[in-house]
Amino acid sequence: MKEKEENKKLGAGRWIRKTSLTILLILIIIVVCIGINLAVENANFSDIDVTKDKVYSLSEKSQDIAKSIDKDITIMLINMDESEEDFVKKYSSLNDKIKIDVIDDLASRTDLTDKYGITADTQAIIVQSGDREKILSSADLYTIDYSTYQTKDTTEESLTNALISVTTDEKPVIYNLTGHNKYSSDDMYFFTQDLESEAYEVNDLDLLTTGSVPDDCSVLMITTLIEDITRKERNEIIDYIDKGGKIILFGDPNATGKDMTNFQDVLDEYGVSISEGIMVEQDSSKMLYQTPTAIIVTVSPYTSVTNKTNMNMNACFITSGKIDIADSDELDKLGVQAEILATTSEKTFYRTDYSIDSDSRTDSDEELGNATVGALLKKTVDDDKTSELIVYSNNIFVSNLRVTGNDGYSYVLDYYNNEDLAMNSIAYLSDRENMITIRKDVEVTAYTVTDQQNKIILSIIFGIPVVIVIAGIIIWQYRRRKR
Predict the structure, then answer these.
(1) Helix residue ranges per DSSP H, 44-136
(2) Backbone dihedral angles phi then psi of residue 204, each to the nearest 5 degrees
(3) In 3-state terms, what secondary structure has residue 143?
(4) Long-range pairs, 202-206, Cβ under 8 A, ≥24
């Protein structure tokens, strides 16, 4: 009896010790977890983005712009969600001149409600630098893809462009030559919108009205002509070249064979011309699906325009011509240096007979692989002046043309690196090399679960832990009784 009581006491003592030890371990684990959470929160580690396209990370372009800012900027977040707050903090983490002001209660900020006419329910982001400011409503952070009718997130694009807008002292001015063009302003609307979003000023220019290229012209943009320019316009453009002017030409082939003598005089200043025929692709991996005239061209990564991107690029040219460049002796006489920006594949051929329906090469077609479709020409005017021309033998790739596919339609400007190639070319000519980059597609489709999917997700989140706990209790009871 006495022995049983002693064993009972010993068992109770062991139980108390084990229970105490278990409780102590649990308390230690809880304290350690709390400590780790506090340390991580105070350290403010960046989120790890495991998505293929890094859609939750700032693009290289946005990072470079944020780091380069040398002015004090305040980004006010008014009634924004925590996810937007976390995203905006990525900018401030790169540059201590960027401050974040989170405003959740507008009742105490009558200065804002009076100045901007906003209400207590307004959601907005206000970017300020000195006297300059840019207001982004919640509608500016999302858009609709009308080819799929899905909502897409454009927060990074809008915010980065707002930073550019409030910190750029003088916007480069792009003048678009008008009067003889195939494409209207509406046809180039999205590209113009891209330029304006990156703090360029875009104006139309009728040389017969203005008399000359304005002195504030950073880049003269010329699109496909349907008729020749006048002698007056020719002389004014050449005068602009002699002053060290910069030109970008998006030119489709002169398929009609119209006389373009005056305009060719302008191109002769650089020793180049654009063909009347088109390039046709034979390599199925270098064309849009079953469309030999929609060719995928290779952009050289080693040129003045592209060497800062540190990656290979492709672009999609549709019914593109080819660029003919004078031989080295002629270029030397003109004081011109040429760089090849983009070429076709080895399996392309050149066609001038538009009556041929066949996609295959015929006897009348010219075998002409690796044709030049993009070039940079640098012309030395004098010791202090250099005029530059970037020419692409295609205009469609920067237009609003819609291409229909199995999943709806897409705009050609969004294909491959079309936008990057065009925007980087403008950035190079306007001496904004910090803007030469690969622009991340930040328009990420927002995924909305259905009711059924939501039930499945909740059952996984809450059901599995409950099952594990119940299984643990059952196993514990079973082992206890077995003893």
Answers:
(1) 60-68, 82-92, 110-116
(2) -80, 150
(3) strand
(4) 202/173, 202/174, 202/176, 203/173, 203/174, 203/175, 203/176, 204/175, 204/176, 204/178, 205/175, 205/176, 205/177, 205/178, 206/178, 206/179
Hey, what are 198's tokens? 């990156």
**284-287: long-range contacts, CB 8 A cutoff, minimum separation 24:** 286/344, 286/345, 286/347, 286/348
Concatenate the DSSP letters of all residues of 152-169 into one string.
EE-HHHHHHHHHHHHH-S
CA distance 85 to 104: 11
- Residue 263, SS3 per DSSP: helix
Strand runs (DSSP E) across 188-335, as ranges? 201-205, 217-223, 246-250, 272-274, 278-280, 287-288, 291-299, 313-318, 323-325
Give CA 163 to chain center in angstroms.
15
Nearest to 415 by CA among 437, 393, 400, 435: 400
Residue 69 CB: number of other CB atoms within 10 A? 18
In this prediction, residue 116 carries a pLDDT of 83
Q: Which of 225, 172, 224 is nearest to 199 (CA)?
A: 172
**CA atoms of 385 and 406, how far apart (whole Å):** 51
Query: Can you say whether the dihedral through the CA atoms of 225, 228, 233, 239 is positive or negative?
Result: positive
**Residue among 279, 250, 282 at smallest CA distance from 401:** 250
Between 146 and 397, the higher pLDDT residue: 397
Helix, coil or strand: residue 184 = coil
pLDDT of residue 147 exceeding 50, the answer is: no
Q: Which two tokens stand for residue 85?
A: 């707050």
The residue with tokens 């070039």 is: 375
Q: Is 265 helix (H, G, I), strand (E, B) or coil?
A: helix
Residue 142 β-bridge partners: 153
* CB neighbour burial string for 336-364, b if at least 16 within 10 angstroms, e if fewer: bbbbbbbbbbebbbbbeeeeeeeeebeee
What's the average model confidence in pLDDT over 343-358? 94
Beta bridge partners of 250: 223, 392
Task: Give the model confidence (pLDDT) of 424-453 as tens digits.
Answer: 999 999 998 877 776 655 444 434 445 565
